[in-house]
Amino acid sequence: MQLPEWWSSPLVARLVDASVGVAVVLIFAAIARAAARRTLADNDVRYRVRKLVDMTSYLVVALVVLTSMSNELSGLSFAMGGISVGVGLALQEVVISFAGWLAISAGNFYRVGERIQLGGITGDVIDIGILRTTLMETGAWVKGDLYNGRVVRVANSFVFREPVFNYSADFPFLWDEITVPVKYGSDHGLARRLLDEVSTRVTETATRDARETWPKMVRSYRIEDARVEPLVTLVANDNWLEFTVRYVTHHRTRRTTKDQLFQGILDAIDGTGGKVRLASMTVELVEIPPLRIQQGPQETP
């Protein structure tokens, strides 16, 4: 059986060589990923090895194709220049997202495992791809910055369009606050001491860790020193004495810290024997009295 004439052309031979080379690279990459899943127990290390294998395989595939097709590609350089302009305009979003990936990798915008807000979505970074960043979303219908179960993929181009909020990069703590309404006539001095004692006890670990971490921020940025110890302030309004407790907490424990604070405050107030009482607004709906409508006699023409 005689093979077609085009089968013996140099172009076909180079295409076959490139296909075989690409197949070999992909097989080795799949073997390396499978070996990493079996041998590496740490999730973070396994993720980084998998990403390294993927990026290496992409580069090797590109080198194999360019090496195999170098002669043909050199003859198409002028045409490729014109085509690249049109492709760049048509795939502008893809190009910007790829540039965003380069900026994320080189500019330390965020890393896997950090909590960020990107493109209006808040969540933990679980993957950084060439075109998209994958987040495990927090918030939405769930309060307290807890996971809601949605996995969101956000284009990397958003790093150029909107601010990137990082909750855990250099200073993994947040300032939070709660308000406690106290009735007029209560011992406000005792109330302040109770709030200060409870907040100091509950946030002791977070305050100590934040105090050790904050000097790194001062050395890295032009920023003034800040208070990380709990702060209790008072405002007297028309209805009650409003105490505000400001404190630092780890960005992943906002809800549990707030729960411990309120539990400790309620227990402390209950132990004052009525010297400190919480205030609340009571609205009483007054019943509308019955209305009697008397219809007069109708007039006859």
How many structural units, i.e. domains?
Answer: 3
Secondary-structure element order, N to C? HHHHHEEEEHEEHHEEH
User: pLDDT below 50 for ≥5 consecutive residues: which ranges?
Assistant: none
Quote the beta fraction.
Answer: 15-25%
Give the neighbour order of strands across the main sheet. 4-3-2-1-5
Taking all Cα atoms into account, the compactness measure Rg is: 33 Å
Structural class: alpha+beta
Structure description:
This protein is an alpha+beta fold and 301 residues long. It folds into three domains: 8-90, no CATH class; 108-166, SH3 type barrels, CATH 2.30.30.60; 173-270, Alpha-Beta Plaits (2-Layer Sandwich), CATH 3.30.70.100. The chain is built from nine helices and eight strands. It has helices at 10-39, 43-68, 70-75, 77-90, 92-107, 158-161, 188-202, 204-220, 254-270; strands spanning 115-118, 121-128, 132-138, 147-155, 165-166, 173-182, 231-236, 241-250. Helix 1 packs antiparallel against helix 2 and helix 7 runs antiparallel to helix 9. The termini are far apart. The mean pLDDT is 81.
Break the fold down into its secondary structure elements and pairings.
Elements: H1 10-39, H2 43-68, H3 70-75, H4 77-90, H5 92-107, E1 115-118, E2 121-128, E3 132-138, E4 147-155, H6 158-161, E5 165-166, E6 173-182, H7 188-202, H8 204-220, E7 231-236, E8 241-250, H9 254-270
Helix pairs in contact: 1-2, 7-9
